[in-house]
Amino acid sequence: MKRSRKPIAPLTVLLVLAVACGGDPDGTDSAGAAAAASDAVESRSTRNAYFGDVHVHTKYSFDAYIFGTRADPDDAYRFARGEPLTHAAGIEMRLKAPLDFLAVADHATYLGMFEEMDNPDSSVGQHALSVALRDAATPADRSAVFQEVLPRERGYVDPDDLLDLDVVRSAWQKIVEAAERHNDPGNFTTFIGYEFTAGGRGGENLHRNVIFRDANVPGIPFSRLDAKNNPELLWDWMDEQRTQGIDSLAIPHNSNGSDGWMFQLTDRAGNPFDSAYAE
Question: What is the sign of the dihedral through the CA atoms of 199, 201, 203 and 204?
Fold first, then answer.
């Protein structure tokens, strides 16, 4: 399927609306579906303002699922285009005006796993944390599950007993397919992406939304479990993907939650930034 996207850089992009609605990360054979078609839609101006969101979580994100989100990527895209969406509390929601673009950017870590944990017959359905998830009946219960998950999600407790990479790949493929279904050149642009987070033991979070240029994407996203909390390994991975024709950019967000880490002037090893590092 051809995708018609104008390059991101020339646009005056306003990001609005926060919608709550590791294996071997090698490439996929989707390159054929990513044929460049950016010339298909002629740009009316380089000074238009486009409104959208590149940080939307669905049921495939561990935190969203724990706190009641059951909307999937298709729901997120329909909502962005102005269709109603029913909140977990039963309230119908609708945007005052549709958006111009959207990226479902679910957490790469444990992508899709919590829906799997909610199924008692799944491979992880009888794990103690899965049972606690299903038994969580109050906000306090859900918060307790969330707090128990964090050390695993951050990679400080062995995550492997709750990690099924086949589930992660399946969820990622569904995210990619939903973006392809809802991309409408000249009217509504979808971006394929995910959220990568690195950080420290004190809760410092280095959040980045990794957005791919087109439908040529890897078979599985690179997560903090792959990076061992080192964001520099994300950039190395992105560079390596570019050698395979998979282009992406990483957009920092919620930098206030980094406890200053996002603004450090030294690299991971403590060396001051220089021009070679910046390049």
Answer: negative
Cβ-proximal residues to 231 (8 Å cutoff; 6+ apart), any chain: 196, 198, 206, 208, 268
**Burial (0-12, 13-18, 19+ Cβ within 10 Å), 220:** buried
Distance in angstroms (rounded) separating the CA atoms of residues 19 and 12: 21
Q: From 239, 252, 219, 205, select the one nearest 105 (Cα to Cα).
A: 252
Greatest Cα-to-Cα distance within the chain, rounded to the nearest angstrom = 56
Cα end-to-end span (Å), the chain = 34
How far apart CA 34 and CA 217 sit, in angstroms, is 8
For residues 117 and 130, the answer to whether their CB atoms sit within 8 Å is yes
Q: Which two tokens stand for residue 211?
A: 């957005």
Q: State the chain's mean pLDDT as an integer.
A: 84
> 219 and 27 in contact (C-beta within 8 Å)?
yes
In this prediction, residues 50-79 reach a mean pLDDT of 97
127: pLDDT strictly greater than 90: yes
Alpha helices in the chain (DSSP H): 62-66, 73-80, 113-117, 128-135, 139-153, 165-182, 224-227, 231-242, 275-278
Angle between the 73-80 and 165-182 helix axes, to the nearest 10 degrees?
30
